[in-house]
Design brief:
By secondary structure, this protein is of the alpha+beta class. Helix content is 15%, strand content 48%. It is built from 2 helices and 10 strands; from the N terminus they run H-E-E-E-E-E-E-H-E-E-E-E. Strands 1-2-9-5 form a 4-stranded antiparallel β-sheet, with no helix packed on it. The longest helix is centred in the N-terminal third of the chain and has 16 residues, at 2-17. It is globular, with a radius of gyration of 19 Å.
């Protein structure tokens, strides 16, 4: 029985350590223009399916807004929905940040990529020229 548990544990560790994943980041372009990128830890030969993905950006509350979003992944259209700090406060937020939910609706896009190379997902502009604060991706 001990052999079975050891084999099972080694199998799970191997599976977890070889998991394929992406690291996401925000790249500054110029002025108030940014893009969100994904960096894979594996190489794909053209069989990676992107069919329904999304993420949330957090900005300081106020008149700032996300505008001019442009899909960079196969030219597909992203939707952006704002959830204001006041609404988030009711759900345990601290009332200082607005959330912007980005979503790429279902629809197949197959692409290839190389491990460690950035994949441009979407570009956007922050409106109303903010003077303070930072943008972050919600974990």
């Amino acid at each position: 029985m001990k052999k079975h548990y050891t084999t099972l544990i080694l199998g799970l560790i191997t599976l977890i350590s070889s998991a394929q994943s992406y690291e996401f980041g925000i790249v500054y372009i110029s002025n108030y223009d940014f893009k969100v990128v994904a960096t894979p830890n594996f190489t794909s030969s053209g069989n990676t399916d992107v069919s329904d993905i999304g993420f949330t950006l957090m900005l300081p509350t106020g008149t700032n807004n996300i505008i001019n979003e442009t899909g960079l992944l196969g030219g597909r259209t992203w939707t952006v929905q704002e959830v204001e700090a006041a609404t988030l406060s009711g759900a345990g937020g601290d009332g200082t940040k607005d959330a912007f939910l980005f979503n790429l609706a279902p629809g197949q896009t197959l692409f290839s990529h190389t491990s460690g190379e950035q994949i441009d997902l979407v570009s956007f502009e922050v409106s109303n020229t903010p003077t303070t604060g930072e943008i972050s991706i919600l974990l």
